[in-house]
Design a protein that fits this description.
The structure holds two protein chains of two kinds. Chain A is an alpha+beta fold. Chain A contains five helices and four strands. In chain B, strands 1-2 form a two-stranded antiparallel sheet. Classes of the chains: A alpha+beta, B mainly alpha.
């Protein structure tokens, strides 16, 4: 075991030099690189955390938007359902109103049709009755019936109201010829013609010459025309009177 | 391995200086490490290559090992010295495996130089850490009577540091030489494997002891300033290693 001071001193110096070299060219650069990498990793981690936070915020915002859209969609759907319900109710009301109108129109139409049919049936019944009565009266008609009708006519003339009496007189005055045209279903005898002339003269206030003619269509009785005034005293006109719906003479 | 004597043999003289093979081997080791450091230095990048990854791994492991013993603010300050100790002692130990060379650490002058550097650096870091007066005061604590024992402890542990490394490496080479002389050519090969293990272990022990000594010079501040607080488990573990 030897100890050499020169070697000792040189080894000390050698170590110090090596320490300087390694510190300058190995430790410090490597540590700098490690620190830089660490700083870079930290920065990237911070960036990643920031991105993660941003992503979380965006995700939250997206979820809120989705919830908001769902709420808006629900509101729009409810509004649409309300509109549809209103339109449906309005349409149903219109349809109901239209049906009601149509029903009223149909009812009126049916009533009119029924009334028309009833009127037609009444008319046909009246025609039929008229025809039947006319046929029956035609079989019953006779000069005696005509004489009876003339007698009734004369009684009615005697009891004629004042207004009608004035009308007849006025009509007689307007006629220039001043004749009374008498149509008879059966031939009138002289006595009957004179009775008629006297009855007319009593009403008209003057004597009216008669122009007697025969008209078998009258069935029985006479029809006297004084100017514009007609006196119906025959079965044909009576039947026609009953045949008229309003029943006016 | 060289079959020389226990100390270094003088190779040539440089003026008044006698250059031994220990110094020459040390220069060779220094040259190799410097070239490797320079090559690595100019190829550093944030995206590391395989070599850079290895270098970063070595530096990071050393930094973590120091960080387990020292407070965080002192790690970067102590790292160059302790890391250089580890790297140099390991390389110097392994240099004995190269035919024609012998490990510089089989020379007591070299190990004594390293121990003296550890001794000096311990006080240097201690004084830098807490000031000259406070540092010197801790030798007289807890009682002035313990001052001689502290001084003796400082000297003996430095001596032990030098002798331990020198004795282990020298005895290993000597054993390999004896086996080679007695048994034959290939028989020392298992012993060379043992040399590798021993080189690593001795480098680790030398470096960790230096680290513990430096930590001991720095740490008392904390323990003195906080008397009720127990030393950290890591530090206690390192102390146990030293005792073992």
């Amino acid at each position: 075991m030897q100890f050499d001071w020169t070697t000792f001193v040189l080894e000390v110096l050698n170590f110090l030099v090596l320490l300087w070299i390694l510190k300058r060219f190995l430790y410090q650069p490597v540590l700098d690189v490690l620190d830089a990498r660490q700083a870079r990793i930290k920065a990237e981690m911070a960036q990643a955390e920031k991105l993660q936070d941003d992503a979380a915020a965006l995700g939250k915002q997206y979820a809120e938007r989705l919830a908001q859209w769902a709420q808006e969609r629900e509101q729009l759907r409810q509004q649409l359902q309300q509109d549809l319900a209103q339109q449906r109710a309005s349409g149903m009301e219109k349809i109901r109103q239209s049906l009601s109108d149509e029903e009223a129109k149909a009812r009126v139409r049916n009533a009119a049709t029924t009334a028309s049919h009833e009127a037609e049936l009444i008319r046909q019944a009246a025609d039929q009755a008229y025809a039947d009565v006319a046929a029956m009266l035609a079989r019953l008609a006779s000069p005696m019936l005509t004489a009876s009708i003339v007698r009734v006519l004369l009684e009615d003339l005697a009891a004629l109201p004042k207004e009608q009496r004035e009308s007849l007189r006025s009509a007689a005055e307007k006629v220039a010829a001043a004749t009374a045209e008498v149509a008879s279903a059966h031939p009138l005898d002289d006595a009957a013609q004179q009775e008629i002339a006297r009855g007319l003269a009593a009403v008209a206030g003057r004597k009216l010459p008669l122009a007697v003619s025969s008209d078998p269509a009258l069935i029985a009785g006479v029809r006297i025309a004084v100017g514009e005034c007609l006196l119906h005293a025959n079965l044909l006109d009576e039947l026609a009177f009953f045949r008229r719906p309003d029943g006016q003479s | 391995m060289n079959t020389g004597e226990l100390g270094g043999s003088v190779v040539f003289h440089l003026g008044p200086l006698a250059i031994t093979d220990t110094v020459l081997t040390t220069w060779g080791v220094m040259l190799c490490l410097a070239i490797a450091a320079l090559l690595l230095r100019y190829r550093l990048a944030l995206l590391p290559s395989r070599r850079q990854t290895i270098a970063e791994g070595i530096v990071a492991v050393i930094e973590r090992a120091i960080g387990e013993v020292l407070p965080a603010d002192a790690v970067r300050r102590v790292l160059p010295f302790v890391a250089t100790l580890w790297i140099f002692v390991l390389t110097a130990n392994l240099a004995g495996l190269v035919p024609g060379l012998h490990a510089p650490t089989r020379d007591l002058s070299a190990t004594a130089a390293l121990a003296a550097l550890v001794f000096a650096s311990t006080h240097w870091y201690g004084i830098r850490s807490k000031g000259l007066r406070a540092y010197l005061r801790h030798y007289a604590e807890p009682s002035l009577i313990l001052l001689p024992f502290h001084v003796i402890s400082e000297l003996t542990r430095t001596l032990a540091l030098a002798i331990r490394l020198f004795g282990n490496i020298m005895s290993l080479e000597m054993a390999a030489l004896l086996v080679l002389l007695i048994a034959g050519f290939l028989v020392p090969v298992p012993l060379l494997m043992l040399h590798v293990i021993e080189a690593v272990v001795q480098a680790y022990i030398f470096g960790i002891l230096a680290l513990i000594y430096i930590a001991g010079a720095i740490e008392p501040i904390a323990t003195q300033e906080r008397p009720g607080e127990a030393p950290s488990p890591t530090f206690a573990k390192s102390k146990n290693k030293e005792e073992s």
